[in-house]
Design goal:
By secondary structure, this protein is α+β, with helices and mostly antiparallel strands. The chain has a single domain, classed as Nuclear Transport Factor 2, Chain: A. Helix content is about 30%, strand content about 35%. The chain has helices at about 50-65, 70-80, and strands at about 1-10, 10-20, 25-35, 40-45. It has a four-stranded antiparallel beta sheet, covered by helices on one side. The longest helix is centred in the last third of the chain and has 14 residues, at about 50-65. The relative contact order is 0.21. The model has no long low-confidence stretch (mean pLDDT about 95).
């Protein structure tokens, strides 16, 4: 699994590239982590709500780190054209 994070206060938003064995493919997961009493950096299983600027920052960090690959980048460019 590869991942990148963007922090906003006590919340950490992540894009994770995960391999799904049963489907034999990679998928992208967007998730939220928080420090909780029982565990530091705990995955919070709920919808992720983040500001537009944090979302853009997360996408950019994902592209620069290679979590989001060139195919994703090209599809994004093509969709915006």
């Amino acid at each position: 699994m590869r991942s990148v994070t963007v922090e906003d206060g006590d919340e950490r938003f992540a894009i994770e590239k995960i391999y799904i064995k049963s489907l034999q493919r990679y998928e992208v997961r967007i998730c939220l982590y928080r420090d909780c009493r029982d565990r530091i950096n705990k995955l919070i299983p709920r919808p992720v709500d983040l500001t537009m600027d944090k979302f853009v920052a997360l996408i950019l960090v994902g592209l620069k780190a290679g979590v989001l690959d060139d195919d994703f980048k090209q599809e994004l460019i093509k969709g915006l054209a």
